[in-house]
Every structure is written in structure tokens, then in C-alpha cells.
Recover the amino acids of this structure.
């Protein structure tokens, strides 16, 4: 991770901390992050920092938030496309 991303995530973590401390609701946190332009991996890493959880749990908090439905749909479509391509690939020894 580059220095700019590290700084951006640290700043967003501190900005979002009062929201998390007040609600302890991952959906409220995701809405705050989205409203403040924090998306994708930055939002997942910020979530991980605030929840002090694993990357898996942070991704679950991210993708299950109602405000992140578009991101979940995109990920599912992307993975379906990869799966379809993989099914068409013939592996040779």
C-alpha cells in the first residue's frame, strides 16, 4: 500500500470513529463512508480498522450494507463472468 492510501485510510478512520463509537452499526458506518466518498478497498480497510476485525469480516460488513448493493452486484457479475471464462478454458498438460 502506498503512503497516500495509508494516510487517506488513517484520516477516514479517525473521521468515522465517532460514527462507529456512537452506533456500532456496520450499516450506519458504511453509509457514512459512502457519503464521504470512501469506496472499495479504502472502505473495507477503514472498516477493518474501526471494527478491529479480519479482512473477511470487514468485507462482509461492506458488502452486506444496503448502501453497498451496487458494489455487491458488480462483484457478483464480475465473478460470474470469470467463472464463465474459466469454464471455457481448456487446461492442457
Amino acid at each position: 500500500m502506498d503512503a497516500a492510501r495509508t494516510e487517506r485510510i488513517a484520516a477516514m478512520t479517525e473521521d468515522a470513529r465517532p460514527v462507529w463509537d456512537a452506533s456500532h452499526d456496520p450499516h450506519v458506518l458504511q453509509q457514512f463512508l459512502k457519503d464521504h466518498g470512501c469506496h472499495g478497498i479504502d472502505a473495507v480497510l477503514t472498516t477493518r480498522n474501526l471494527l478491529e476485525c479480519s479482512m473477511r469480516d470487514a468485507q462482509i460488513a461492506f458488502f452486506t450494507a444496503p448502501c453497498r448493493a451496487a458494489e455487491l452486484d458488480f462483484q457478483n457479475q464480475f465473478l460470474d463472468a470469470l467463472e464463465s471464462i474459466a469454464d471455457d478454458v481448456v487446461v492442457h498438460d
Notes: The CA atoms of residues 44 and 60 lie 9 Å apart. Residues 3-23 form the longest helix (21 residues). The chain has one domain: 3-68. Residues 3-68 form one domain.
